[in-house]
């Protein structure tokens, strides 16, 4: 079975707990992630290591890139100080702290994060086509002449839209905009499904959960954040 998992944001304990819940139901799952693997939460490095390890074991474990991965990549590629980037305001310190105990944002990302993590994140696509689903971080701009080239929209949009005429045989799974788990339940089986239940936002009422959806059966598996 295929499972798509919402925004993790460095919450490794919660991710492992959710994965174990899936394995209790399915001995040969495929995993897909909507991006924002890193930032804000306590252990982004461990999340990356975990997903890389799944892949190295021959398990299908694929992720799209989220806006947080994009900010990391831009900081890395531009070889600038973290304190000179927008990333510093969006969870960079928590991510760097998972690599070094005392993060110095006046240093460059390359001085703090090994090259192999950049290489992995740089391979993440903006979307995945599963023939019956598009998996994307934020959404797809169907108002564009070339919707699958509008990468900015895929990373950042907060607008829900869908082109029923052109893509009626496809469904979209995305994250990016945290919503209560009860709201997620209401959108199941619609054409445009948001599965970000705000795992890292335990301080906000009705958020603080990590969600997976079985893409074959529409079953939801929702677990409470255990990293906080």
Describe the structure in your own words:
- There is one protein chain.
- Strand 2, helix 2 and strand 3 form a beta-alpha-beta unit.
- This protein has a single domain, classed as Purple Acid Phosphatase, chain A, domain 2 (4-Layer Sandwich).
- It has a five-stranded mixed sheet with strand order 3-2-1-8-9. Strands 4-5-6-7 form a four-stranded mixed sheet, with no helix packed on it.
- Helix content is 31%, strand content 16%.
- The chain is of the alpha/beta class.
- The chain contains eight helices and nine strands.
- The radius of gyration is 17 Å and the shape is globular.
- The mean pLDDT is 95.
Brief overview:
The chain has 228 residues and is of the alpha/beta class. The protein is 31% helix and 16% strand. It has one domain: Metallo-dependent phosphatases (Purple Acid Phosphatase, chain A, domain 2, 4-Layer Sandwich), CATH 3.60.21.10.
- CATH fold descriptor: Purple Acid Phosphatase, chain A, domain 2
Secondary structure: helix percent: 25-40%
Q: Which secondary-structure class do the elements indicate?
A: alpha/beta
How far is the first residue's CA from the last residue's CA?
A: 30 Å
Q: Would you report the number of β strands?
A: 9
Fraction in beta strands: 15-25%
For the CA atoms, what is the radius of gyration?
Answer: 17 Å
Low-confidence spans: pLDDT under 50, at least 5 residues? Answer: none
Total count of domains:
1
Largest sheet: 5 strands, mixed
- What name goes with the CATH superfamily? Metallo-dependent phosphatases
Oligomer: single chain
Instruction: Give the number of helices.
Output: 8
Average predicted local confidence, pLDDT: 95
- Output the helix-strand order: EHEHEHHHEEHHEHEEE
- Record the strand order, biggest sheet: 3-2-1-8-9
CATH architecture assignment: 4-Layer Sandwich
CATH class: Alpha Beta
Overall form:
globular
